[in-house]
Amino acid sequence: MTGESNTPVRTTARSFDIIETLRELDGARLTEISAHLDLPDSTVYNHLRTLVERGYVVRNNNIYRVSLRFLEIGEYARSRRKIFEVAEPEIDEIAVETDESASLLVEEDGRGVYIYDAQADTSIPLDTHPGKHVALHATALGKAILAYLPESRVEAILEQRGLPARTAKTITDREELATELETIRETGFAIDSEERVRGVRCVAVAIKNENGQVIGAISVSGPSSRISADPDEKHLEELLRAKNIIELKLAHA
């Protein structure tokens, strides 16, 4: 990489590169960060010093790590989504009643972001933790959202993000995706069969606000051996029950 630019935009970008590197490396020494980003130690040190002073990075035994300050900011961002507070108890109940993982996802900048997840005692560990970003076309949750977004918005998302394959079963053709979205509108639910994670199947339904605009989706996820490609009546009933309650609460909040 070239040396540090004097422009504020480049300086800000460098700080975020360092933060993302610390997350990727799960903490690192100055020289490790510099090598990872191909930047001079002096440049990285100046950024780290500022980030430490502002409380966004902590240093212990010369190891730098992302601080819990981001948790505060993340919680604030999540709390601004009215759907989170309303859906949280319903997601918990879905997990208990289905003995699987239940999730809440919203769309932001053309990607899906998990903002809440609940696990049953018998559910398998999944990477659906709050803050996880995923491709909308590769998940039942994302497809449920895409199915009810305006066509112009869907086109803009596809232009921005494309249709990258996550597994051998991911939809990567626009016409195939369009057909799938039409089916979702007809049936009222979306499903992905190992399209994001091998061995995992997910069933989801969209959540709309009082104006009929889609603002998120909820799901049940689990091993393909436990969740059928033709959704189990119990799973779908739980999702539709929760959808109804969430939408009613949103309308009267």
Automatic annotation (TrEMBL):
Keywords attached to this entry: DNA-binding, Transcription, Transcription regulation
Domain IclR-ED positions:
69-252
PROSITE patterns named in the record: HTH_ICLR, ICLR_ED
The terms under GO molecular function for this entry are: DNA binding; DNA-binding transcription factor activity
**Database matches in Pfam families:** HTH_IclR, IclR_C
Domain of life of the organism encoding this protein: Archaea
* Any one Gene Ontology BP term: negative regulation of DNA-templated transcription
Record keyword Membrane present: no
Which ranges carry the HTH iclR-type domain? 9-68
Query: What protein name does the entry list?
Result: Transcriptional regulator, IclR family
